[in-house]
Please model this.
Amino acid sequence: MGRNEVDVTDAELALLTALWDHGPAPIRRLAERVYGEGGPSAYATVQKLLERLEQKGCVTRDRSGSVHVFAAAVEKGELIGRRLRAVADSLCGGSFTPLLTHLVEGEGLSAAERDELRSLIDRLDRGKRRRTGA
Model:
């Protein structure tokens, strides 16, 4: 399975979120952030989860100090994209249109969110016209 196909569990996602929100950290600090305590069982759990995330290419480990420090190696947007692509592939035959339609119609968008979406579409259209010379 290639790096772009790797998904993470909810427990692994909690660690990645802590790294995205607070930056690189050692195991003990991550255990405190995610589990609210740094006892032996939380430490062991975080250590195992970080090992799995490292194998998946989602975190890096700085071994230069006496305490190893972990950092996110995948951007939040990249992981969001992976997960959305997987949902589109499994539920919508690979198309984002039904997924987006359901989200927009089912949840409804505020005026600000609609404006942001229009702005995004306009930006994408302008970029596409520049690339094709249209």
About this structure: The radius of gyration is 19 Å. The helical segments are 10-22, 27-35, 40-55, 76-92, 97-107, 111-132. Strands lie at 25-26, 59-62, 69-72. The chain has a mean pLDDT of 88.
